[in-house]
Specification:
By secondary structure, the protein is α/β, with parallel strands linked by helices. Helices cover 38% and strands 20% of the residues. A 4-stranded parallel sheet has the order 1-2-3-4. The longest helix is centred in the middle third of the chain and has 18 residues. About 5% of the residues have low confidence.
């Protein structure tokens, strides 16, 4: 399976979207995974919906595996989920309880 990596030098989310579209056009990728965990919630929603739709037009039976930042992002995107999308949380934030020592 092919994997798309975000260039961390992007200025606008449109550069990420154009990069993924270019990746889809250059590669035979009925299935691919993309780590978009560096994106904020709004940019992640826009990227997932637009790029999954674009991918579906070229590969109706394909699948895109999106690695997201956290469960909150996943829960917001989940109701918008298309048939070719698979949402995954890249990393869970570890919450630790602090104890005050006297």
């Amino acid at each position: 399976m092919k994997k798309f990596q975000i260039d961390f030098k992007f200025r606008h989310v449109t550069e990420v979207i154009d990069g993924i579209k270019g990746f889809i056009n250059k590669n035979r990728c009925s299935e691919f995974e993309a780590d978009i965990s560096p994106l904020n919630l709004i940019d992640a929603i826009k990227t997932v919906v637009m790029c999954s739709t674009y991918h579906f037009r070229k590969y109706p039976e394909g699948k895109v595996y999106w690695d997201l930042k956290d469960r909150q992002t996943m829960s917001v995107i989940a109701p918008l989920k298309l048939s070719n999308m698979e949402l995954r949380v890249k990393r869970e934030e570890v919450k630790t309880k602090l104890r005050v020592v006297k």
